[in-house]
Amino acid sequence: MATSSVSKGCFVFKPSSKKRKKNSDVDYFIEGSDDGEMARIRVNICQRLWDMTKSETEMLQDELNKKILDSLLEFIKKCASSFQSQMNDWASLMRASEIPTAALVLGVNVPDHDMTFQSLSVLLQQSVTPFVVSVQAKECTALKHLMQKVLERLIGVDVAVDDDDEDGGQRSAPVHQKRVHCSLSSLCDWYSSVTKKYETSPGKKRTSMAKDMISKPPIVIIFKDLEAFNPRVLQDFIVICSRYIQKLPLMFIFGIATSPSTIQHMLPHSVSSLLCIELFQSLSCTQHLATVVDKLVLNTEFPFKLSGKVLQVLVSIFLYHDFSVRNFIKGLQLALVEHFHSQPLSVLCCPKKEALDHAQKLSHQEVERIRQLPSFMRYVENQEPQKQVELLTNDGCVKEVCKILMKALRKYHKNYYPILRCLHTLTSSLPKYPLGKQIREIHISCLEKNVWETEEYDSAMQLLKLMAKDELVALLQKCVVILSSSKSKKMKAALGQLQNYLAKFDQLDTLSAEEVMQEAVSPEKDLQKKTDLFQLQKTLLERKETRRTKKMTPFEVLRNQILEFVDSLVRAHLVPPESQPLNEVCYYGSSGVLRRHLNATPRTSIQTALSHPYYYLQHEGLKTDSGTFSNAAPDICIVHKLHLECGRLINLFDWLEAYSTVVSAAEGKDPDSSDYGKVDELKHARFIQAVSELEFLGFVKSTKMKTDHVARLTWGGC
Amino acid sequence: MPALVEQPGYAHERLCALTERVPCRETQASTLLALLGEPGHYSYPSIFIYGHRASGKSHVTESILQELELPHAIVSCVECVSAGLLFEQTLVAFFGPEAPSLLPRSSSLSDFVRIYKQLCAQTPACQTRYIVLDRAERLRDMEANLLPGLLRLQELVDDNVTVILLTEIVWDKFRPNTGCLEPLLLHFPDYSKAELQEILVRDYHPAYSPDLYGSFVSILLGVFYSVCRDLRELKHLAALNFSKFCEPLEREEVKESETHKLWRNIEPHLKKAMQTVYLREVSSVQWEQQQQQMEDREAGTLKGLSAYAHVELPYYSKFLLIAAYLASFNPARTDRRFFLKHHGKIKKTNFLKKHEKTSNHLLGPKPFPLDRLLAIFYSVVDSRVAPTASIFSQISSLVTLQLLTQVGHDDQLDAPKYKCAVALDFIQAVSRTVSFDIVKYLYDFL
């Protein structure tokens, strides 16, 4: 592009906005598939499902934060009213005036806090005070900046708000003032003028604010990430604020990621004695995740499902890497989008009525796709030969079967989740948690294999067989609650049976008294008779046998019956979804894609780019069999390949020679000609550039151990 | 009762009122007043007052200036993020609110002197003007010429002006290398126990007799005097605990004269206060609430802030932290011994250089490069971990959480160095949660 400049230099050209016409999501979807109409439907479904998820998570977030935010609000209101009342009794006159401070412990994932602070400040603005400022550490490296940010946001924001009712004449004044002094005393002046305005202004303005707003609302300053603040800046700021606390009702909220003792690490006693710190602890993020999984993943209403592996990837990213619920939900979103993008049959992955509708409208191509689904093929194989033929030739028949199968899949889910929850309630309190503490662990193992074939399941059942009566009854009662919320027929039947068993337990109480009486009579056969050794042994053995078998009390019998019943329910309903025909429609299973996107491995990517240039460049000329290497590859790839053959120190000249030979071959020169493999200037320059690129990537470095050598920084050859 | 503060040139009633305002600081007040001289006289250009926190420096100075109605400007140097603010506040105090508009943006000392002279010519001083700089130690961090300039401001502006510096540290720590005008030094000693008692009793509770309050204060001082002589804090503590002291009186179990019983009642309570509310482990509001609740039921102890030391971390972050701790406290030469399978036997004594024989925990954490951290991390973590981007981002989030600190400048992208900033207790707690026996890997505990 041309510039009007006469000097040499670097110029930035921003692409003109017209050219950058962004492809909409729909176009992106359509590009990847061959049927535009269906793709559009898929985008719609995907969008709808995501909106559903989003609103659900937001609700969940609000619900979870409610408790802590409410108590925080309570605290702030209390402090505000104590500012208000200006107590004149002896104790409050004597007391040093401390700045009320809420220490809000939110867990180690700092980016996740944003949402909480967002809702907190909205809440505060609605109900307590319009003056809420939040500051972040990275924008306050010095006291000056912190002060400036606080003033700017308080005064500036308020100016913007006042624009609506007031004429422009007054506007410039505060802005000008702000520029002149950046100190709390100017904030003081501003505050007194603003509060006076609130007091004197007629009712109109006050009603527009909340009604319960007090005439001198406090100024709340939120420090979003306390740990990252420079302690000195914070100390100075607190000292300054405490000088003005009589005139300005200031209040702090510290967002703490680690533990409250950080406050003591950061602030010396002389400063912390200026604060009146109260602690608020939020829900731990693992609990938060558990609720999110419970609401989003284990939800019958939500047609899109994650396979075990995908869920595993998402959960392990959470537990091992970031503790971020937000990232978990983003991962879920990615899976959702990927599923609808890559699986054309996902058009059926929607609420029941629509799905049946779409099944009717399937095109021939899509019917073919259904026929190719592994689960459908398995289903076909199990049919009678005549039916098989029909399924393979008649599109209409496939559509009908498809509808039936979709219904079956829905039923399967309706039964699956209640039973899963029951199994979880039964096993989650067992010692050592054989099936996991959290419901997601059972869920994952159920998704992957037949859970009843695992050792863990066996040991859980063994432990359940040892359970005392009252414990077991309590657990079963919980199961009854779970099952009663389900509407499916089978679950209702199961519920009935379970209640029967529970009734039997009740009867047992009355029965058992008599049983015990009977039992007391039966034992103690005569052992007093003189016997020989052999006979003694025999009787003892017999006794042992009988003790093993006979000593079943009615309770034990009943317990075994119940557990068998539970086992039968598990076997019937917790089959892995892979066995269900058409599961591919709803289940997203490419965990590899997800992992690649969410948990990037920079080094592996570089390695791949260097050793398999085709992978990224997608150039036909570079396509090679495994093990071999195209000599037309980019210079850096050739140089990298050659350096793999060397030892720890690489002779630059040999390397250059080898490179030149490879490149000459690529140019198609005659191997017998005299200048074959000769190093000319161009090749030399290309080689040097490639080597310096390798150095930049950290594969080699210059060394002083030997002249004209570089040191390799990686191990292993080819 | 010490003598009245006396100084010719001031009305007697004013001086009486002043004496009333500065209990137990009469000597200091009269010395200071003597230094200041009569209102019209030229005073010494700069006075340096030092003494511990809450030993009455600002109070005495302010009382004198206010009570005797001398023209003065009181500026807190903490608040002055730039020298310009300091100048502004001084000019406002002396020449009215319009004065600072003459100052250019980001003004220097010479601007200030120029403007001061200009304004001073219009309204010359008939009394000595005083500039009081509270927390003067902050002046050292500002421009190098500011402190020496202020010390001889009288000379520079050619006006009857005196600068009073108030600080908690001694003059020796101020003296610039280039030399300057030495100010007059005035020391404010700490209040003695008797003086504290006297001052505290002045604010007795109106509903009770001064004698009763006096006995409460002496009990309070008996407990707290050894740890805290800060008048402000003591006043605060007295206010928080007095209601508890009066409880038996309210219930009419004890008479006011039975001081021993009152002492027995309050003493354990005050001891507890020393461990909690004094250290701000428990906020004063919570402390009061707790007292009210105690009347209902005896139980219910509040956990202090430091009781919540537990930090939840992602699994790999825990191992990264453990690896960082090992890298910080083990000499790099010993890594072979701890993390290689067939390291052979290396004896501690003859293996190490002399300086490495002292406990590394006494020396504090040492910096280590990123490579070493990752190498140790891969060998302590029990499963194979791919070197993903999130592992690296966890390192930087540990830095923002202040569990690691980055050594050197943070724009060094190539081979950054870190230090581990957590204590042994903390790391032991962390490694217990991942069942990793860290002590076995620490060279100091070999």
Task: Give the name of the CATH superfamily of the domain at 53-159 and 183-191 and 215-283 in chain A.
Answer: P-loop containing nucleotide triphosphate hydrolases
Q: What is the domain tally of chain B?
A: 3
Mean pLDDT of chain A: 80
Q: What is the CATH class of the largest domain in chain B? A: Alpha Beta
Descriptive overview:
- Chain A: Component of ORC, a complex composed of at least 6 subunits: ORC1, ORC2, ORC3, ORC4, ORC5 and ORC6. ORC is regulated in a cell-cycle dependent manner. It is sequentially assembled at the exit from anaphase of mitosis and disassembled as cells enter S phase.
- Chain A: Residues 360-589 form the Origin recognition complex subunit 3 insertion domain.
- Chain A: It comes from Clupea harengus.
- Chain A: InterPro entries: ORC3, ORC3_ins, ORC3_N, ORC_WH_C.
- Chain A: Residues 603-715 form the Origin recognition complex subunit 3 winged helix C-terminal domain.
- Chain B: It comes from Clupea harengus (Atlantic herring).
- The complex is a heterodimer of chains A (718) and B (446).
- With 718 residues, chain A is of the alpha/beta class.
- Among the domains of chain A are: 53-159 and 183-191 and 215-283, Rossmann fold (3-Layer(aba) Sandwich); 602-712, no CATH class.
- Chain A has 32 helices and ten strands.
- In chain A, strands 2-3-4-1-5 form a five-stranded parallel β-sheet, sandwiched between helices. A three-stranded antiparallel β-sheet of chain A has the order 8-10-9.
- In chain A, helix 2 (36-85) packs across helix 4 (113-127) and helix 18 (385-393) crosses helix 19 (395-427).
- The longest helix of chain A is centred in the first third of the chain and has 50 residues, at 36-85.
- Chain A is extended and about 110 Å long.
- Chain B is of the alpha/beta class and 446 residues long.
- Chain B folds into three domains: 12-187, 3-Layer(aba) Sandwich (Rossmann fold), CATH 3.40.50; 193-278; 315-344 and 360-445, Arc Repressor Mutant, subunit A (Orthogonal Bundle), CATH 1.10.10.
- Chain B has helices at residues 12-21, 26-36, 57-67, 83-95, 109-122, 146-151, 153-157, 193-201, 210-224, 231-250, 259-275, 284-296, 315-329, 335-339, 348-351, 360-363, 370-380, 389-400, 424-433; strands at 46-50, 72-76, 129-134, 161-167, 184-187, 368-369, 404-407, 417-420.
- Residues 296-300 of chain B have low confidence and may be disordered.
- At the A-B interface, helix 3, strand 1, helix 5, helix 9 and helix 10 of A face helix 4, helix 10, helix 12, helix 13 and helix 18 of B.
